[in-house]
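Predict structure. Input: Malate dehydrogenase, 362 residues.
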Amino acid sequence: MTRCLISKPEVQGFIERCMTSVGTKSHHARSLAEVLVEGDHRGHYSHGLNRMDMYVKDIQTGICAKDGEPVVEKESAGTALVDGKNLLGPVVGNFCMQLAIKKAKEAGIGWVVAHGSNHYGIAGYYAMQALKENMIGMSFTNTSPLVVPTRGKECTLGTNPISVAAPAKDGDSFVLDMATSAVALGKVELHERRGDTIPEGWGCDAEGTLTTDPKRVLSGGGLVPIGGSEATGGYKGYGLGMMVEVFCGILAGAQYSKHIRTWKVTDRVANLGQCFVAINPENFAPGFGDRMSDLLSIQRGMEPADPQHPVLAAGDPERMNMKTCEGLGGIPYHINVVNHMNECAKRVGVSPLLPCDNVISN
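Output follows.
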């Protein structure tokens, strides 16, 4: 596999240039670029640079707003309802998470929901903002219907991710960031772009039959909930997806379930619902950080079934990916993704393009 090594500042600057070239405000472009680069840095390539052309198109077509800022419509000491004003998802997400943290400092908890939002990148980016304040953070979003519920044939739920971040001692943390589908759609798209097959159990075709062909999943098929079939617990993933919808579309008064626009069909505004929570452990039993560290060490410290594969906690694979990037001196991108985004940049008159001179093979 041929990959290009590109530094974080280079990718960040490239995304910002592409977004501002189609009229995005510079600070909005920066918010988007930061979350996309962080997604790649953490190894979630499905939610990073790979997504940039979608955001460019959203601004170009005017289906996503360039001007304005999110507005608080209703609030109490510990809650808020926010109108995202159809702005870029990361602009709405940062506004809401910072508001949740502010409320948690004052009231012990901040629970903020938004309607009128758009795709916001990795959910973990927002949950992790609470870690900087030594708080628990949570983030959820609904998405276009891509998941076929247990016993169903039609896509009526999104990938509806859940992220929970909890601080431990010495900068350590638990960071859960997961779709409630078996995988995120971006992973299927990435395999399709690379020409690879997908593992069994990621998605189904138009008839509801499991398939390893990403094209069949993307054209008329759908993703499967965590757990897969009913026999293997798929109804639990289906239930978690519904829970996210309760916190997002239903609580915020946004679009929900099959009422959300079809993925990548930008004929109308997305009006996604999102939820952001910050909890201050200081308002609860003392010693939270110590117990968190112990909880993490119990799992990591056990004898693994395979000595080559130690037991990890949520957030550990991402930390390992970041360490690898640091060692390489940049983020390794598949050459096809780089070429695809450079073509996108040329169409909107952006230069310089992403560099392809630092090639690594593995």
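The two ends are 6 Å apart (CA to CA).
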